[in-house]
Every structure is written in structure tokens, then in C-alpha cells.
Amino acid sequence: VLVKVHAAGINPVDVYIREGAFMNLPPLPRILGKEVAGIVETIGPEVQNYKVGDRVTCCLPLDGGYAQYVACDESKAIPLSETLSFSQGASLYVAYFVAYRALVTKCNVQEGELLLVHGASGAVGVAATQIAKARGLKVVGTASTEAGMETSKIAGADFVFNHSEEGYLADAYSVTGNRGFDVIVENCADCNLGSDFLMLGQSGRIAIVGTRSPLKPPPHNPKLVEVNPRSLIYTEGRVFGVKLLGVTQEEFNIYSKAVVSGIEEGWLRPIIAQEYKLAQAPEAHKRIMSQGASGKLVFNLAM
């Protein structure tokens, strides 16, 4: 389907690709952007599920979203409800698929479990909170600003702590009755993974969904994280890496159905922090890499 783009999501991975922060980089030139929302302009002869004029979210694992038009395989499109704006529609793929993969596919969360979302005010943190609450978990979130803490509360967190304040880990741990968390979703592993090990309960699971540390081939030396492995011996805990590109087509179908159901049921609502013009990409990239997230950043092509 050819889609006229109304909004495009902005994600940290866009910055990492531009900065060359990965071992394997895509060939240049490259149009960044992994998710857009818009209206179907034209369909190919084999398209069955969409027609001209449909509102859709396009998921773009191989990028291309910073554009006025996007060609998207039908299998990577999601119908966009009229109840969401285009900006919200451009927030459904990266954040919600990563959060769902972390919580459900990797950590197999169960109703009644205790979840710590380390960095709960960004797009993935909001998505993880909403998915977890819909599945009956108790959620503790952290953020670094008052605005971020409020965003986490709006997303549904039961408790929110300021991770820029000394002693917040002890306060968060006390919520568990000092037995530790069943699951931790970690958005900044290069900062927090060592303490995450100490926050786990018995058979706890950590899902690493983000880090600011680049991974480049030698002679580059990545930032190292100090951990106490005895923590995992004591809890028999597990640590999972979460990679969006690891999603199979079968998993994609499961995740997209879960997203559509969440929208229909009313609990899935992306929170938009700020909209930018496409020409403001440099400013947007600086903003998304700064501390103090309070929702999703998007390009609004109508601006």
C-alpha cells in the first residue's frame, strides 16, 4: 500500500542509526523512521485487507518513515481507529511492540505480579505500564521530572518515584514488602542494570529494552556495567535482551492484534509529549536523547 504520511514516530533508534552506534549499520543513503500513520493513497493488485482512504499505521522495520509518502507491505500495516489521532497512530509500533515483547514474549508476566518500569515516562515505559495494568500487574514506575512522574501516573502506574533523587531504589523496593520485583523493564541498562539485579525477587526477570551505550566493533570500547552475579544465584533470576528486529511475522500478527484490542477496549492510549515539523528533525533528535521524557515525540506533517 502507498500511504500518505500524516505523522511519523521519532525513536532513539533513529538517532543511534544516524550516529553509527551499532555493529551492523544499514547502507547509505538511508531515510530514517520506523513508524508512520496516514491514509492509504494507492493499493497494489494483491492487497486484500485495505482500500484507498483507509487510516493505517505502517510498521517499517527497515526504516523510511521520515517522508511524505511511504510504501508499506500489507503484512506490516495495522488499521488505525478513528479514536486515535495520527500522531498517536505513529506511536503504536516501536513502543508497544517492544513493551509487549518484553513483558509477554520474554518475561511471561502473570496477573498479580509486581513490575518495576525503570524509565516509565518515555514511550516504551508508558506502553509497558498500560500493557501491564491491562494484564493485572501492580506497576511501580520511575521518572526524573515532575512532568515525567505525572505522565507515568496517567499511564496507570500504581506508584511513581523520582529516579534522580537519592534513596528512590529503597523506596521502590519497600513497595514489594521487601521481597523484590517479579519483573523489571529496563530502559537505561548502562545506568541501572547493576541495581536492577539487587531489586529482583525470587525467579525474577529483567527485560533490557534500552541502553545509551553504543555497540561498535574494535577498537571501540563499549561502556561496561558492574553487576553482582550472586544476585542472580540467590534469586535464580533471568535477564532478557529485547530486539524489535527479532519479531517474526507470526509474532507481529499477535502483537498487532493485541494493540488493536487494546485500542478497542480503551486502555491503550499513546501519550504525545511534543509534535515537530519534519524540518525540525535535528531539534527532535536532541530532545529525544535528553533526560526528562514525558511521552512520545512525533513529526506532524500537517504542521
From TrEMBL:
<dbReference type="GO" id="GO:0005829">
    <property type="term" value="C:cytosol"/>
</dbReference>
<dbReference type="Pfam" id="PF00107">
    <property type="entry name" value="ADH_zinc_N"/>
</dbReference>
<dbReference type="InterPro" id="IPR013149">
    <property type="entry name" value="ADH-like_C"/>
</dbReference>
<dbReference type="InterPro" id="IPR036291">
    <property type="entry name" value="NAD(P)-bd_dom_sf"/>
</dbReference>
<dbReference type="Pfam" id="PF08240">
    <property type="entry name" value="ADH_N"/>
</dbReference>
<dbReference type="GO" id="GO:0070402">
    <property type="term" value="F:NADPH binding"/>
</dbReference>
<dbReference type="InterPro" id="IPR013154">
    <property type="entry name" value="ADH-like_N"/>
</dbReference>
<keyword id="KW-0521">NADP</keyword>
<feature type="domain" description="Enoyl reductase (ER)">
    <location>
        <begin position="1"/>
        <end position="299"/>
    </location>
</feature>
<dbReference type="GO" id="GO:0003960">
    <property type="term" value="F:quinone reductase (NADPH) activity"/>
</dbReference>
<dbReference type="InterPro" id="IPR020843">
    <property type="entry name" value="ER"/>
</dbReference>
<dbReference type="InterPro" id="IPR051603">
    <property type="entry name" value="Zinc-ADH_QOR/CCCR"/>
</dbReference>
<protein>
    <submittedName>
        <fullName>Putative zinc-binding oxidoreductase</fullName>
    </submittedName>
</protein>
<dbReference type="InterPro" id="IPR011032">
    <property type="entry name" value="GroES-like_sf"/>
</dbReference>
<dbReference type="GO" id="GO:0003730">
    <property type="term" value="F:mRNA 3'-UTR binding"/>
</dbReference>
